[in-house]
């Protein structure tokens, strides 16, 4: 399974260097057997994110973007990896067609923006896909709400919801799709 995941990841055009980070010598030997670069990490890593950080510290070259691909993802599409990398590249922060969203620690939306003036590209933000779901009772209220200054400035209807005191919950999408704008 890990070999198939590695082979799929190797097809991603956006990856400069692909390594397997593991604390298990059997996994390392298996991966070396099919040609993967392996970085041994400590057993103290609680999860893949900590393992990625430890591996990054051991690399000679420095990278701005690191992609954590779990070894049990043999069906991962290389295009998805490329889109995840592109989503973190700074130019998306300045693209008005890429709506940015900042969320609080509980996963609720705090702000949406088309530009980079209100969303610092160095501050963590999510790219908003053009899909929302609403309670039907709220949809009856929405047209009665007055347009807000931020909604009009950004041309984003989500701001009307937030500025009128309603909450919107964010979920993560692992299948990134582009829009046509």
UniProtKB/TrEMBL annotation:
Keywords: Nucleotidyltransferase, Transferase. It comes from Eucalyptus globulus. Coiled coil: none annotated. The keyword Ubl conjugation does not apply. GO terms for molecular function: nucleotidyltransferase activity. The keyword Ribonucleoprotein does not apply. InterPro entries: Cytidylyl_trans (IPR003329), KdsB (IPR004528), Nucleotide-diphossugar_trans (IPR029044). PANTHER family: 3-DEOXY-MANNO-OCTULOSONATE CYTIDYLYLTRANSFERASE (PTHR42866), 3-DEOXY-MANNO-OCTULOSONATE CYTIDYLYLTRANSFERASE, MITOCHONDRIAL (PTHR42866:SF2). This is 3-deoxy-manno-octulosonate cytidylyltransferase.
